[in-house]
């Protein structure tokens, strides 16, 4: 993800010299080892500990409000077996635990907007359904330069259909790069593989295709160092303070 929200996203044909690319630190669902994932305290903690961007997951409530939640149901995090699509925003308010609640996307955007200049929100969409409503929230807040998207091709094509200029990281789980026709349709800035697929050869091939490389989810120092040395542009982690120290050269 691009940390500077005043800079336009390059097209895939734009080449960025490797020695001018700082590796961006992306916090996975906030700071989940300290606060419950996808909550505002988790987002705030990640920003305070040096995240360039915070990745969050978005689902829609029954009344079509984008909220921060990874699973389709509320059971794992909120002890409620209901599917999120069967619960209204007002009903979600009843699930507060110890001051924590399922936040709306709008609340998360405002939290990141209040952080130091350059911080961003990375919205992970697994399915195409929420794309239009999610983008409507983003534009309604005037946050187009503050929010980027990641996810599989089907979801990102839905984003591109409603947001021609949005920054996109295409989540990709194959050792070979996507076909050129998909890249031309989607125009992603980043290719976003799991860290196990990242090799110098993969990174070089992505560069030749005009793509930056983001990767997930690295939690060990040795993995972070390997990825840094491989030349990736962005690393996502559950341990943002550890990643920040690795990227900054601190123990």
Structure explained in plain terms:
With 251 residues, the protein is an alpha/beta fold. Helices cover 32% and strands 19% of the residues. The chain contains 10 helices and 11 strands. The strands form 2 sheets. It has an 8-stranded parallel barrel with strand order 1-2-6-7-8-9-10-11, surrounded by 6 helices. Strands 4-5 form a two-stranded antiparallel ribbon. Helix 1 packs parallel to helix 4 (105-113). The chain is globular, with a radius of gyration of 17 Å. Mean pLDDT is 93; it is low at 4-19.
SSE pattern, N- to C-terminal: EHEEEHEHHEHEHEHEHEHEH
Mean pLDDT: 93
For the terminal residues, how far apart are their CA atoms? 25 Å
Regions with little confidence, pLDDT below 50 for 5+ residues: 4-19
Provide the structure class. alpha/beta
Radius of gyration: 17 Å
Largest sheet: 8 strands, parallel, barrel
Name the helicity range. 25-40%
Q: In what order do the strands lie side by side in the largest sheet?
A: 1-2-6-7-8-9-10-11
Count of extended strands: 11
Q: Tell me what portion of residues adopts beta-strand conformation.
A: 15-25%
What's the overall geometry? Answer: globular
Count of helix runs? 10
List the helices and strands and how they pair.
Blueprint: E1 24-28, H1 40-48, E2 53-60, E3 66-68, E4 73-74, H2 75-78, E5 80-83, H3 89-92, H4 105-113, E6 120-124, H5 131-140, E7 147-151, H6 153-162, E8 167-171, H7 180-186, E9 190-192, H8 200-208, E10 212-215, H9 221-230, E11 234-237, H10 240-247
Parallel strand pairs: 1-2, 1-11, 2-6, 6-7, 7-8, 8-9, 9-10, 10-11
Antiparallel strand pairs: 2-3, 4-5
């Amino acid at each position: 993800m691009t940390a500077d929200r005043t800079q336009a996203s390059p097209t895939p044909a734009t080449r960025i010299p490797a020695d001018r690319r700082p590796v961006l630190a992306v916090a996975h669902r906030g700071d989940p080892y300290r606060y419950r994932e996808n909550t505002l305290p988790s987002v705030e903690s990640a920003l305070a500990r040096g995240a360039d961007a915070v990745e969050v997951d978005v689902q829609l409530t029954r009344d079509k409000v984008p909220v921060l939640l990874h699973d389709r149901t509320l059971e794992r995090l909120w002890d409620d077996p209901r599917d999120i699509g069967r619960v209204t925003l007002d009903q979600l308010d009843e699930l507060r635990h110890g001051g924590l609640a399922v936040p709306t996307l709008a609340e998360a955007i405002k939290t990141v907007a209040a952080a130091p200049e350059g911080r961003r929100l990375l919205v992970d969409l697994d399915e195409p359904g929420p794309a239009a409503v999610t983008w409507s929230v983003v534009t309604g807040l005037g946050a187009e330069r503050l929010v980027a998207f990641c996810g599989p091709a089907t979801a990102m094509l839905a984003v591109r259909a409603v947001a021609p200029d949005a920054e996109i990281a295409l989540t990709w789980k194959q050792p070979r790069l996507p076909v050129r026709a998909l890249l031309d349709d989607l125009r992603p800035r980043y290719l976003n593989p799991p860290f196990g697929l990242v090799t110098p050869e993969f990174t070089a091939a992505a560069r030749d295709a005009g793509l930056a490389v983001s990767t997930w989810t690295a939690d060990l120092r040795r993995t972070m160092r390997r990825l840094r040395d491989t030349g990736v542009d962005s690393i996502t982690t559950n341990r943002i303070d550890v990643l920040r120290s690795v990227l900054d050269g601190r123990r």
